[in-house]
Amino acid sequence: MGIPAWVWFTVAAVAGVAGFALLATDRAQRTARNRERRRWAALRGWQFEETDHVLPTRWESGAIAYYGAGVAKDVVAGSTFTADGRRQVYVLDHETSGKVNSVLVGVRCRRALPVVVELWLPSVPFQRDQMPDLLGPVGSRYAFVSELPAARKLITPDLVDAAEEIGADVTVVWLEDDWVLAAAPPGSTPARLERLLRDLGELADVVDPFDADDEADVGAEVHRPQFGRKP
After folding, report:
1. Residue 38: how many other CB atoms lie within 10 Å
2. CA nearest 208: which of 87, 105, 89?
3. CA distance readout (Å), 174 to 8, 133, 145, 214
4. What pLDDT band is residue 27 in, cutting at 50, 70 and 90?
5. Phi, psi (deg, nearest 5) at residue 45
6. 209: phi then psi, degrees, rounded to nearest 5
7. Which of 8, 171, 56 is nearest to 163 (CA)?
8. How would you classify the pairing of strands 99-108 and 71-82?
9. Region 137-161: what's the mean pLDDT?
10. pLDDT by residue (tens digit) across 37-94?
11. Cα dihedral 16, 18, 21, 27 sign
12. Count of beta carbons in the 10 Å neighbourhood of residue 176
């Protein structure tokens, strides 16, 4: 005996309503996060952009290598003070395949670092096709680096201490070119992102300390935010 057509119609209707409800809920959450991020940017006097397709391509390691370049959503750009002076910052939702996988937070250094260092939580399945060399444990994380000798010089006890302060909700912290970056959970609140910016600022101060020649510029904004452009 076949199933009546009205049964199939009812199942399809229920599925359609459920799908619409999920879509509406996701859109509402996305809109709420957008407004929250926008208000936060305005409060700090920072720039806000809803979408940027080029910005994620300025980095190649860490979460970008793991998830792919993707698209930057709800992007905040500005500058913040660290103990050594003012540094440029970015905060963005990193979206790939239509899904936000993390919130990327970056603090810019004044000079490029000689090596890429990725610090992954051991609980993360961080293996990928082209993985940097394994250096070993660095505090509670595992370090993967582009060049072992240069990384050993860079990873000091002060760097380990600064990295340990970042928190176990951040899957990866990495140093690339003239940036210190981290991948926070999707939906991280502005309060959590503020703390993460402070922690990354401390890490940037460790790997990129200002010297006497920089003192005259400490009170000035070092970099002008430029959405979608590589430096």
Report:
1. 15
2. 87
3. 52, 14, 9, 25
4. very low
5. 70, 30
6. -70, 145
7. 171
8. unpaired
9. 96
10. 999 999 999 999 999 999 999 999 999 999 999 999 999 999 999 988 899 999 999 9
11. negative
12. 22
